[in-house]
Design brief:
The structure holds two protein chains of two kinds. By secondary structure, chain A is an alpha+beta fold. In chain A, about 45% of the residues lie in helices and about 25% in strands. Chain A has a six-stranded antiparallel beta sheet with strand order 3-2-1-6-5-4, with helices on both faces. The longest helix of chain A has about 35 residues. Helix content of chain B is about 65%, strand content about 0%. The longest helix of chain B is centred in the C-terminal third of the chain and has 23 residues. The two termini of chain B are about 20 Å apart. Classes of the chains: A alpha+beta, B mainly alpha. At the A-B interface, helix 1, helix 2, helix 3 and strand 1 of A face helix 4, helix 6, helix 7 and helix 9 of B.
Chain lengths: ~350, ~190
């Protein structure tokens, strides 16, 4: 076969037979899901069809550290890292495109292992910069032959699009988390707010009714909180609330929910917890607060003895437990603790 | 002698027509090809062959042009006149600038065959599978994976090779005549 025919066949095949259909399909595919790993897997399979990219690395700066996506052998691997390897760190600091021919590379930084096989002819390093900030760093390797002009155009076009797409997903996720957090968290203590902890209780109660496991709750109230505020000021009161919250939160197990129920009142929802266990848990909470005074200022000697009163209630023995009735029983038990001297637990 | 009987759309049973309609709907063709008409006497057979072709060619991860190319190459290597002509036509319809002569010379080029790197690996793999599937080695898989193909994609490649082989046997044993819009390439 003539050499010129070979060249034209190769060019036409590569450029027209599959490129356009493949790029349009992948552009469409990456819009179909908000799941970053799924997008990465689709890209790992299909990038080779329109730009001859069989192995690549995309580095995306994240809120803390970086997301590193490696594509090779038709699969993608994702890793969240705090620091970058020398190759990525150097190119990220340069923020300039670079063409690297591994055969001519004599000095570090060396490319990642999956971009350094013997068939790799060159690596295109492309930083994607928005408003002076590098939003993504792509290293794409060519096998057998160097990338041609059209390959590079496709790599730049798709790399840009992919970076924007993945960055957009992360931004939306952060914004959504921040909104949910704002709507469900108590700003002072970081615990769930009243609405959110009641919603949690409602959900767990439904689960309890469905699977028959007991559910228990604890209402806890800081003793003489008004006097703390009056005698030491609201800043000291806030500090007491924060510290009591921190100690209680440290006692929570996975699956439990803890929220600020009222001014100085807390609601604990303990899943799969019997009446015997809830009494032990409440006693533990009482001691964790009472045993160590709370520091209320910069001076370590400026401390207050703080106690809490607690009331518990359980679904055990109640055939059709209702949320309002459960809270009422815990509330009654709490007031019994208050009435009989405070700093104690009453089982409701 | 003509080894088969064609059932055209007007003479087909309601069940066979359903298969014909699905073929035309899926491919965008306005008529039913000879291979399908030759199965038209049995709606279950027509459906079985069509569903196999549809499930393999019109879904999955590999791009259609690559699948068409695999079918074309396997058919050419099997000397399957009907299938190679049909899929030469399909490859041509996907790439208007590729001339019939170039495609013909691609098939007959032997060791001088030229293709983009990953095409070459896929075609070499297909040829090895049809020569003797038992001789396919882990290294053959490794080669394809180095070209960026996942294990799932390699399974799909094998399924396309197998589909082509099945149709090759059927169309060659019946010596199917070419549809009027196809040109013989072998």
């Amino acid at each position: 076969m003539e050499r010129d025919l070979t060249a034209s066949w190769r060019e036409r095949t590569a450029q027209q037979l599959v490129r356009y259909e493949a790029v349009f399909k992948l552009l469409d595919d990456v819009q179909q899901t908000e799941h970053v790993e799924e997008i990465a897997q689709r890209v790992a399979r299909h990038w080779k069809y329109f730009a001859n990219v069989t192995c690549w690395r995309l580095v995306l700066p994240a809120e803390e550290g970086f997301l590193v996506i490696d594509g090779a052998r038709g699969e993608a691997h994702l890793a969240s890292v705090a620091t970058l390897d020398a190759w990525d760190a150097w190119h990220l600091s340069q923020q300039k495109p670079r063409l690297v021919r591994p055969a001519e590379l004599v000095a570090p930084p060396l490319p990642p292992e999956h971009l350094a096989g013997k068939a790799i002819t060159e690596i295109q390093v492309l930083p994607f910069v928005r408003l002076g900030q590098c939003t993504g760093l792509l290293s794409a390797a060519a096998r057998h032959e160097p990338f041609n002009e059209l390959d590079i155009k496709f790599i730049r076009l798709f790399g840009n699009h992919l970076t924007d797409r993945l960055t957009g997903i992360e931004l939306r996720r952060h914004a959504m988390n921040a909104l949910v957090d704002k709507a469900t968290r108590d700003a002072l203590t970081g615990l769930l707010n009243r609405g959110a902890v009641i919603e949690q209780l409602d959900t767990q109660l439904a689960r309890t009714i469905a699977c028959g496991e007991p559910l228990s709750i604890i209402l806890a109230d800081i003793d003489f909180f008004k006097i703390i505020n009056d005698n030491h000021g609201h800043l000291a009161g806030d500090q007491v609330l924060r510290e009591v919250s921190r100690r209680l939160r440290a006692q929570a197990f996975s699956g439990d929910s803890l929220g600020r129920y009222g001014g100085e009142e807390f609601l604990f929802v303990l899943s799969a917890c019997s009446p015997e266990n809830v009494e032990r848990a409440a006693e533990r909470f009482r001691r964790i607060v009472a045993d160590t005074p709370v520091q209320i200022g910069p001076d370590p000697h400026q401390v207050l003895n703080v106690t809490i009163s607690l009331g518990t209630a359980s679904t055990s023995g109640h055939e059709h437990p209702r949320l309002e009735a459960l809270i009422k029983r815990a509330d009654d038990a709490l007031y019994q603790s208050k009435g009989s001297g405070r700093n104690r637990v009453t089982v409701g | 002698m003509q080894r088969y009987i064609l059932i055209d759309y007007n003479d087909a049973s309601a069940e066979t027509r359903e298969v014909y309609d699905d073929f035309m709907r899926t491919t965008g063709e306005s008529s039913v090809p000879i291979w399908m008409q030759s199965l038209g006497h049995s709606a279950p057979l027509a459906r079985a062959y069509w569903e196999r072709a549809k499930g393999t060619l019109f879904s999955g991860s590999l791009p259609l042009p690559l699948k068409e190319m695999i079918v074309f190459v396997v058919s050419a290597r099997h000397g399957a006149r009907y299938c190679s002509a049909c899929h030469a036509q399909n490859v041509l319809s996907l790439d208007k600038t590729l001339s019939f002569d170039e495609l013909h010379s691609f098939v007959t080029a032997g060791t001088e065959r030229v293709l983009p790197p990953y095409y070459e690996q896929v075609v070499a793999f297909a040829e090895k599978v049809i020569a003797d599937a038992n001789q396919v080695t882990d290294e053959d898989f490794e080669n394809l994976m180095d070209e960026g193909f996942s294990r799932e994609e390699i399974c799909e490649i094998i399924a396309v090779i197998d589909l082509a082989s099945m149709f090759n046997i059927y169309t060659s044993a019946l010596k199917l005549d070419l549809d009027p819009n196809y040109r013989a390439i072998l």
